[in-house]
Amino acid sequence: MEMNQDTINFIKEREEKLGAPLLFRTYSTWYGRIGKEEREYGVFLYTDGKTMVYEDFERNPQIMGIPIRQKNKPEYVKLEYSFPISDIKSVTQVTRASAEKSMKLMTDKTQEAAAFGKLFRRLVTKVTLNDGSVIFFELMDHKDFVRKINEYRRTE
């Protein structure tokens, strides 16, 4: 996959910030952290194998590539959060509907998605940290994410 110069510069900045090369990166099209924030347009996730970082970017609404002006547009507040991969207690797949319900109720009401749910419902990856924090990511490849996390946890 060929990258343009802006992408190369962006990745270099992130590597400098972490002090190590990025071993894995992906994009989450929806994100939520119980009791905290939610992003409908997603976040960028990346890791050096020790620290997982995610961040979002200001995104102005568009229709067919044409920016839409918004009255009373809420002020954008950048999201950037990180945690050691060693702090991950579990990674499971749950329905997005149950994740959204958990976000509204501000408490985890999810259960691992059953076979039927995996076939017919939108799924998200649920990451539970040792401190009890619950984070949801709608990833393009849940299995690859789990495989990478497990690989990094074994090398600690």
UniProtKB/TrEMBL annotation:
Protein name (Swiss-Prot/TrEMBL): Uncharacterized protein
